[in-house]
Amino acid sequence: MLKRFDSNNKLYKECLCLINKKKIKNLFIAGGTTTKDLIKILKKNNFKSNIKIFLTDERITKSEDNKNYKNFKILKFNKKIKLFNICNYTNNIDYYNKLLPNKPDFSIIGVGSDGHIASIFKDQIKINFSDKLLYTKKENENFLRISVTFDYILKSKQIILLFKNEKRYILIRKKSIVSDLIKKYKKKNLFKFIKKNKCT
Question: pTM for the full model?
């Protein structure tokens, strides 16, 4: 299902409607700029029941400004949310792996300019830690990333893909990680949302 929105606010309300309607217990959100405003909305939302929120991916670096968590930490102020920060477990990743549910209830994932999702890129160095987690490294970066795996995302009961603009949406017709995801995700409950931003 593809939906275009004339305002980001309407898009985020649609996301919240789906979350509350499904009464989900765990929510996975990708880092990056595409989901940044959604996180602010989630902070203010009065969830009907407690919810666990997991970051799909994180950069393993000492620079706090370069981490995805900098956008997520405001969620700690919502008492209905229990936030799981991957970075807190980099020295005990096996324990974090056990904290992850067998399958995500709901995943909200922004699509990068090259079609990547989470920290899963088409051409990358990657080391699988488990069926749920992997380490990745881009050639032009001097740090590692940790991410949920492609197959783990595919287990999600519901997926929302956020495209910043039409230019990113056409990546689904090219060879990219997001096009692979759409081909392999057989369930009907895949929502593709395009933000109001114009193509650049």
Answer: 0.88
